[in-house]
TrEMBL record:
SMART domains: Aamy. Belongs to the glycosyl hydrolase 13 family. Residues 135-492 form the Glycosyl hydrolase family 13 catalytic domain. Keywords: Glycosidase, Hydrolase. It comes from Paenibacillus faecis. Gene3D superfamilies: Glycosidases, Golgi alpha-mannosidase II, Immunoglobulins, Oligo-1,6-glucosidase, Domain 2. GO terms for molecular function: hydrolase activity, hydrolyzing O-glycosyl compounds. InterPro entries: GH, GH13_cat_dom, Glyco_hydro_13_lg-like_dom, Glyco_hydro_b, Ig-like_fold, Ig_E-set, Malt_amylase-like_C, O16G_dom_2. This is Alpha-glycosidase. GO terms for biological process: carbohydrate metabolic process.
Length: 581
């Protein structure tokens, strides 16, 4: 065994409480190097009376490593443990004191999980595990009230630019809630709704007022009430990294400079505040001078913004926040943010916008979830022919091992958003590839999100082209695609195994872009078969039982001589299931 590849630490994603009775342990080994891993577990005060040796399962792999995992239920909520690893005739032990060919001498030398304190268990909102989100940019969704349109509003359906308006508003959302219910949506994520001069509203001027072009606070409250009547949760966008240049405290800084009582609300590098040689003399979002960055370490700023977060939770019974540019705000702020938001609504769902590995924010003291852009990137690369099944399974295994299980169960998975090209455009306009991506989205672990209009075939390049007006004329919608989305949403909502069950690749080979994978819980077992090529393919995999059905047609599907053979059209898929209990 390559001992240098072995890794475990008794914290973070490697040893954590999944719930008040269960500890998850993970070990990393070199790829295809170790045959068996066992957890040697017991209570340090009664080692001999509680000792168990429990095998770990190979849960995932990436290009270089295998990842092993086990769930342990200690008798007294505390756990001492070591690992025994075997390969051929070699046995080694991983302990707190290091790696050795000699076993530990309990209760010394062992790793420890001292106690499962319920208050320390990272709890995510249960409803988010069952949610199917729909992202709405209100300005582009529907114009329900032309009387509140901005000046120079263009006819609905025109070409979007960085600064034009089409008149979408909250009344338009209200008018189409039944359409979302029909699709199967049970959660909405709104991009910013508050007063702002732009069409995207990420340059906020008044954090406690709905933009008058969208309606007013009472209308927002009514929208949330009507959503809740339909079983739809509502998450708003919080822009707490920066504000708009018209935000009154920043205007005061522009007027009074260093003498402004708000001077420390922002990161001012030089007075007077201005654009100098094309660069602001103050910190901003990117280098956009109209978006000055908050100093969230300032107690007054923190009090103001946390007050905003609490206000909307209580005022409209908000179900959560999506946090814009979350990785550029200090961790102290987000820890206090979580305390305030969860005190107002313990089931609030907190999603951070972080585009890379986000474990730092996902240890139970800050966010519940992040926008999983790495998921979208890898899925689209694979289904666009950028890698084979072997490399895809490696990439997805690495993503799964980034976070604890409770985070994986609610990580915010999407295939596109207001910041990326549209899904149909990203797959070159090929609906077959789009469907493969969507099947993967809805049969993968995590909380799926659809960007408005993807379900009826809206196309578009990067911002602002991706922010087209929703098409409401049925004659111009792709209704077959809509029915496909509806079918996949319903399948996911019906089966817990597709939400929280184990995910594992069954077939993912070098130089072959076809894959087979499974989702399984104690009651249901699903297998998903995908032909990611332009030719007809028959995929085969050993399956001993003959009780399989097609999940979409309910047709019986039987293996032959213990092997299942599934014929698939070019870029085709099939989903099979069977009952375990």
């Amino acid at each position: 065994m390559l001992l240098e590849a072995l890794y475990h630490v008794p914290r973070d994603k490697w040893a954590y409480a999944y719930d008040s009775a269960t500890i998850h342990l993970r070990v990393r080994t070199k790829r295809d190097d170790v045959e068996n891993v066992y957890a040697m577990t017991g209570d340090k005060y009664d080692w001999s009376g509680t000792y168990q040796e429990i095998p770990l399962e190979k849960a995932a792999h990436d290009h270089m490593f295998d990842y092993w995992e086990v769930a342990v239920k200690p008798k007294f909520k505390r756990l001492s443990y070591a690992f025994k690893l075997t390969a051929g005739t070699e046995t080694v032990y991983m302990m707190d004191t290091g790696i050795s060919h000699d076993g530990p001498t309990p209760p010394g030398e062992l790793y420890e999980f001292p106690y499962i304190h319920d208050i320390d268990v990272f709890k995510v909102p249960e409803w988010a595990k069952k949610a199917v989100f729909y992202q709405i940019m209100p300005e582009r969704f529907a114009n329900g009230d032309p009387t509140n349109d901005p000046e120079h509003t263009l006819p609905w359906g025109g070409q979007p630019t960085a600064d034009n308006f089409f008149g979408g508003d909250l009344k338009g959302v209200l008018d189409h809630l039944d359409d979302l219910t029909d699709l199967g949506i049970n959660a909405i994520y709104f991009t910013p709704l508050f007063v702002s001069p732009s069409n995207h509203k990420y340059d906020t001027v008044d954090y406690k007022q709905v933009d008058p072009h969208f309606g007013d606070n009472e209308l927002l409250k009514r929208v949330v009430e009507e959503c809740h009547k339909r079983g739809i949760r509502v998450v708003l966008d919080a822009v707490f990294n920066h504000c708009g240049e018209q935000f009154p405290p920043f205007q005061d800084v522009l007027k009074h400079g260093a003498d402004s009582k708000y001077a420390d609300w922002f990161h001012i590098n030089e007075f007077p505040v201005r654009i100098k040689n094309g660069i602001p003399t103050y910190d901003t979002f990117g280098f956009f001078g109209n978006m000055p960055k908050f100093n969230t370490a300032n107690p007054e700023v923190k009090k103001y913004l946390l007050g905003v977060a609490e206000y909307w939770i209580r005022e409209i019974k908000l179900d959560g926040w999506r946090l814009d540019v979350a990785n550029e705000v200090d961790h102290h702020f987000w820890r206090d943010f979580r305390q305030v938001v969860k005190s107002a609504n313990p089931e609030a769902y907190i999603i951070g916008e972080v585009w890379s590995d986000s474990l730092t924010w996902l240890m139970g003291d800050q966010f519940d979830s992040v926008m999983n852009y790495p998921f979208a990137d890898k899925v689209l690369e694979f289904f666009n022919g950028g890698m084979d099944g072997y490399h895809f399974s490696n990439e997805m295994g690495a993503l799964i091992m980034r976070y604890p299980q409770q985070t994986n169960e609610v990580v915010f998975n999407m295939l596109c958003s207001h910041d990326t090209p549209r899904l149909l455009t990203r797959v070159g306009g090929d609906k077959r590839k789009l469907k493969l991506c969507v099947v993967f989205l809805f049969t993968y672990i995590g909380t799926p999100c659809i960007f408005y209009g993807d379900e009826i075939g809206i196309t578009g390049g990067g911002d602002p082209d991706c922010r087209k007006c929703m098409e409401w004329d049925p004659a111009k919608q792709d209704r077959e695609l809509y029915d496909f989305y509806k079918l996949m949403i319903e399948l996911r909502r019906q089966h817990n195994a597709l939400r929280q069950g184990r995910f594992r690749f069954l077939q993912a080979n070098v130089n072959d872009p076809c894959i087979v994978y499974e989702r399984m819980d104690d009651h249901m077992h699903f297998t998903v078969w995908m032909n990611n090529t332009g030719k007809y393919r028959t995929l085969s995999h050993p399956m001993e039982t003959d009780d399989w059905r097609d999940a979409l047609s309910q047709e019986r599907v039987k293996p032959k001589d213990g092997v299942m053979h599934i014929g698939l059209d070019p870029y085709g898929f099939r989903i099979l299931y069977r009952h375990l209990q």
